[in-house]
């Protein structure tokens, strides 16, 4: 049926060409008839053939109205970026002033999504109709999709201002201001800045954000001019704290600004008018003297001004104290254990840290623990604000935990509480992310929208893929098409990777996939790119390397999907990538598309070449995920062969770990194989049903794995003997082999873990507070408190490192595997001292359990090493202080480790 449609269109094209129909003959009626053809082509799934026919016609008749329209409409119905055909068509009718047709064509384009070109031309149509209201409606749509359009945003703001619609007015003025900053048009910037100061002076965060962009994009001098105007507004409103902060920023841009410094001194006098030592502290800090560095003077003044009657301070030894009185150069302080303590102001400034009344340390010192405990549990938001503000309004979760656990909350209570706290930090508009430290949180003076919070997080992120996820989160919370300046800046970050790159890397690939997805959802985001995935893929030099570097699961799947869609030999590429991707979708797709033989060959190759690092992990994945699939049988890999390969991988990873080759990867693979063979009891199950020859092969391989825990070998040996008591093991009788690991009892292992946890969660945070306080005292050269705290830090770090190393090397002894045929770990041995004629009884354990006074000795000690592996009746000698003592082993029993 589509043949008839195509024949009809061909006839129309021929007629158009032969009759040379003039433009004056065209009206919207003709295009509505063409729309019927498009509808029929869609129903008959003939769009591709129709577009091909029209494109071929355009190759020799470039101004064919019919071909341009049909080809262009099909292109945009596919959500393709290329709208050249329709642009050419509209241009023809614009040049001939056929505005009704231009309007119809623009509206048809916009049926498939917003288009900057179509909206501009539609506005021009309404201009010719003198329909001003309609123009404003189109402009609103245009400003949402054209992030560079500033003049129209300004006109919309003025339009709504005349109508008294304040919210819309402010929104469009803000859009215009951001865009003028990007264009570096200072006159326009100052005009709209002044207008917004009249309309929304309270929106401090917006103004500070804009001035930062001005400082970065234009100059710090121009930013300072804008801040002077902002300062005047807050000064008149008597918002002194904010006025001071603005002046500090101005002085950051130009520390020699005498006017700003003079204003700062006046603001300080107003803020601390009731302070008993105000003028004295201004004089001491030289805040009003131009010769003193202004930032040093401010820091000096702020350090002194906190010392006044009723204020709280902290001393590393005496804790929290309250200033009783200040008389001249002498301060009297009441500490909990040292009341009425006096010191000079100079000494106080050096030795004490000032605390706000609501500082968490003050609350701990002045409130009952039970009351504070209930407040913290019941009100996580208040707790977060209190702690974050206590530490210069920037704090991470680690510091928050250190303040609460174990002093206020137990470890168990913290687990539940911290989950609620993280949700609050993420969703509550009163909290934000520190722009300079992504893992630290701040308390905001004014609530912030979720969109702005995510934008700030995006700016603070340093990792490409973290930024990508943040933009995803941004789109999820907006619940609509993005039209904010925040989105524009984030989107352009990724689009920028595609506009200028010398080499295709993971960021370029990720940006292409991400941007293409966004353009599919919002077609007006046309970035003007002129290359496709196949061209990009052709320039990839290290395909596995780029795939591994795509640190985003969704992008990896999308990358694989694009390879299948656009690369002819996609199946071979899937085979090449599988050891790096380990994706079930690769296996499923290859089988579904009829490439089962390739899949079988790939699997055999992976098992045969298990020594390759990537293939090792692939063997594990295949064993765990697909060995039960019907196609896997065609590999000819028997279950025994699979297990033997896993044992070989266990051995080779141990060796490479010992030789420090790809240690992290080998540890991961080794742990996976270890879990399969022993924890999941795959070997045990196989041994139970295997014949004697098979068992011999498997056990021999296991026995040859040098670094495998001897207890596991012994356990497997015992299982074999339980099944077949007459089974003969080749080689020498099993001995206790001491590996690089540390054999320990379960109880001692738990004790060491508790010790490490206490140091990390209690002693280390306490030491960090001591160092922070000591640093606040100034000169480190003669700071005894700082030196003592640092020495303690070194001791703690060394202890932690030693404990972590021992715990990592520790191998927990299984009492059920104790071997009493020889002296070994976990045995109790009776020795006859032939030299002195007495009996001696020893328990052989590890260095953690060693207790010589109670005859518990370590197998790593000289005497323990001498006894190890001895049999009953065996004679041996041991030297102590040049005295040789003769022993005979009388008996060996299992020690009581309960």
Provide an overview of this structure:
Belongs to the GreA/GreB family. Keywords: DNA-binding, Elongation factor, Protein biosynthesis, Transcription, Transcription regulation. It comes from Gracilinema caldarium (strain ATCC 51460 / DSM 7334 / H1) (Treponema caldarium). Residues 743-812 form the Transcription elongation factor GreA/GreB N-terminal domain. The chain is an alpha+beta fold. Among the domains are: 1-146, Alpha Horseshoe (Serine Threonine Protein Phosphatase 5, Tetratricopeptide repeat), CATH 1.25.40; 638-716; 742-812, Helix Hairpins (Orthogonal Bundle), CATH 1.10.287.180; 816-894, Roll (Chitinase A, domain 3), CATH 3.10.50. Helices cover 62% and strands 9% of the residues. The chain is built from 42 helices and 14 strands. The strands form 4 sheets. Strands 4-3-2-1-5 form a 5-stranded antiparallel beta sheet. It has a 5-stranded mixed beta sheet with strand order 12-11-10-14-13. The protein is flat, with a radius of gyration of 39 Å. The N and C termini lie far apart (86 Å).
On the 0 to 100 scale, the average pLDDT is: 88
* CATH fold naming of the domain at 1-146: Serine Threonine Protein Phosphatase 5, Tetratricopeptide repeat
Q: How many strands, what sense, and barrel or not for the largest sheet?
A: 5 strands, antiparallel
Q: Regions with pLDDT < 50 over 5+ consecutive residues?
A: none
Structural class: alpha+beta
Tally of strands: 14
CATH top level of the domain at 1-146 is: Mainly Alpha
Strand order of the largest sheet: 4-3-2-1-5
Oligomeric state of the chains?
Answer: single chain
Rg from alpha-carbon coordinates = 39 Å
- Number of helical elements: 42
End-to-end separation: 86 Å
CATH A-level architecture of the domain at 1-146: Alpha Horseshoe
Helical coverage, percent range: 55-70%
Task: State the shape.
Answer: flat
The fraction of residues in strands falls at 5-15%
């Amino acid at each position: 049926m589509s043949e008839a449609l195509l024949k009809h269109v061909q006839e129309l094209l021929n007629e158009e060409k032969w009759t040379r129909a003039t433009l004056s003959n065209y009206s919207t009626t003709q295009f509505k008839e063409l729309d019927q053809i498009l509808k029929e082509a869609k129903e008959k799934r003939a769009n591709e053939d129709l577009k091909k026919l029209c494109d071929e016609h355009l190759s020799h008749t470039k101004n064919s109205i019919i071909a341009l329209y049909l080809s262009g409409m099909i292109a945009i119905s596919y959500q393709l970026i290329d709208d050249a055909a329709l642009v050419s068509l509209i241009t023809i009718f614009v040049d001939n002033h056929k505005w009704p047709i231009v309007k119809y064509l623009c509206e048809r384009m916009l049926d498939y999504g917003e288009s900057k070109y179509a909206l501009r031309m539609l506005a021009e149509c309404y201009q010719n109709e003198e329909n001003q209201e309609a123009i404003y409606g189109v402009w609103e749509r245009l400003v949402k999709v054209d992030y560079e359009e500033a003049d129209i945003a300004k006109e919309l703001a003025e339009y709504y201002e005349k109508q008294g619609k304040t919210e819309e007015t402010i929104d469009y003025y803000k859009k215009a201001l951001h865009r003028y900053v990007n264009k570096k048009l200072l006159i326009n910037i100052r005009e709209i800045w002044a207008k917004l100061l009249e309309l929304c002076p309270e929106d401090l965060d917006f103004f500070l954000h804009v001035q930062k962009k001005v400082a970065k994009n234009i100059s710090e001098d121009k930013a300072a001019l804008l801040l002077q105007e902002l300062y005047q507004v807050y000064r008149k409103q008597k918002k002194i704290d904010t006025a001071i902060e603005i002046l500090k920023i101005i002085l950051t841009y130009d520390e020699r600004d005498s006017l700003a410094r003079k204003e700062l001194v006046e603001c300080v006098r107003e803020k601390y008018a009731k302070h008993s030592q105000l003028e004295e502290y201004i004089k001491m800090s030289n805040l009003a003297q131009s010769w003193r560095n202004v930032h040093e003077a401010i820091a000096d003044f702020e350090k002194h001004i906190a010392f006044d009657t009723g204020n709280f301070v902290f001393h590393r030894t005496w804790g929290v104290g309250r200033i009783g009185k200040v008389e001249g150069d002498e301060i009297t302080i009441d500490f909990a254990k040292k009341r009425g303590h006096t010191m000079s102001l100079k000494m106080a400034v050096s030795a004490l840290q000032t605390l706000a009344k609501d500082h968490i340390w003050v609350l701990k010192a002045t409130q009952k623990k039970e009351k504070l405990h209930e407040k913290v549990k019941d009100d996580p938001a208040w707790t977060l604000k209190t702690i974050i503000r206590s530490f210069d309004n920037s704090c991470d979760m680690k510091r928050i935990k250190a303040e609460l656990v174990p002093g206020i909350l137990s470890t168990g209570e913290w687990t539940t509480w911290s989950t609620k706290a993280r949700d609050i930090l993420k969703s509550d508009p009163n909290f934000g992310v520190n722009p300079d430290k992504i893992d630290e949180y701040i308390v905001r003076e004014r609530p912030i929208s979720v969109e702005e919070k995510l934008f700030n997080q995006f700016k603070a992120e340093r990792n490409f893929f973290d930024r990508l996820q943040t933009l995803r989160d941004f789109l999820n919370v907006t619940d609509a098409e993005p039209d904010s300046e925040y989105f524009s800046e984030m989107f352009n970050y990724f689009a920028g990777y595609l506009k200028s790159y010398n080499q295709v890397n993971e960021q370029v690939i990720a940006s292409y996939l991400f941007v293409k997805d966004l353009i599919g959802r919002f077609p007006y985001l046309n970035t003007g790119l002129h290359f496709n995935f196949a061209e990009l893929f052709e320039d990839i030099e290290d395909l596995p390397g780029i795939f591994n570097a795509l640190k985003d699961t969704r992008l990896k799947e999308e990358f694989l999907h694009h390879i299948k869609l656009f690369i002819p030999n996609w199946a071979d590429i899937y085979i090449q990538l599988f050891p790096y991707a380990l994706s079930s979708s690769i296996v499923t797709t290859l089988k579904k598309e009829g490439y089962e033989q390739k899949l079988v060959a790939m699997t055999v190759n992976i098992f045969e070449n298990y020594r390759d690092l990537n293939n090792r992990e692939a063997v594990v994945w295949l064993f765990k995920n697909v060995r039960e699939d019907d196609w896997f049988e065609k590999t000819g890999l028997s279950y025994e062969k699979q297990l033997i390969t896993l044992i070989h991988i266990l051995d080779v990873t141990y060796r490479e770990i010992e030789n420090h080759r790809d240690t992290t990867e080998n540890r991961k693979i080794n742990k996976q194989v270890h879990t399969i063979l022993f924890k999941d009891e795959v070997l045990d199950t196989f041994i139970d049903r295997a014949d004697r020859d098979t068992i011999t092969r498997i056990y021999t391989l296991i026995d040859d794995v040098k670094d495998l825990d001897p207890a596991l070998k012994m356990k497997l040996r015992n299982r074999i003997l339980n099944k077949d008591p007459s089974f003969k093991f080749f080689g020498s009788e099993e001995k206790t082999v001491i590996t690089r690991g540390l054999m320990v009892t379960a109880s001692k292992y738990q004790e060491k873990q508790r010790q490490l946890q206490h140091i990390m969660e209690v002693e280390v945070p306490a030491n960090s507070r001591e160092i922070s306080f000591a640093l606040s005292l100034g000169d480190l050269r003669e700071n005894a408190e700082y030196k003592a705290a640092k020495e303690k830090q070194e001791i703690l770090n060394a202890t932690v490192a030693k404990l972590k190393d021992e715990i990592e090397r520790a191998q927990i002894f299984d009492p059920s595997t104790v071997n009493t045929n020889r002296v070994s770990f976990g045995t109790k041995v009776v020795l006859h001292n032939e030299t002195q004629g007495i009996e001696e009884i020893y328990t052989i354990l590890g260095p953690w359990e060693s207790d010589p006074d109670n005859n518990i000795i370590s197998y790593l000690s000289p005497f323990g090493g001498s006894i190890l592996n001895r049999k009953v009746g065996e004679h041996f000698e041991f030297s102590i202080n040049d005295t040789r003592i003769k022993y005979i082993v009388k008996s060996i029993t299992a020690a009581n480790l309960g």
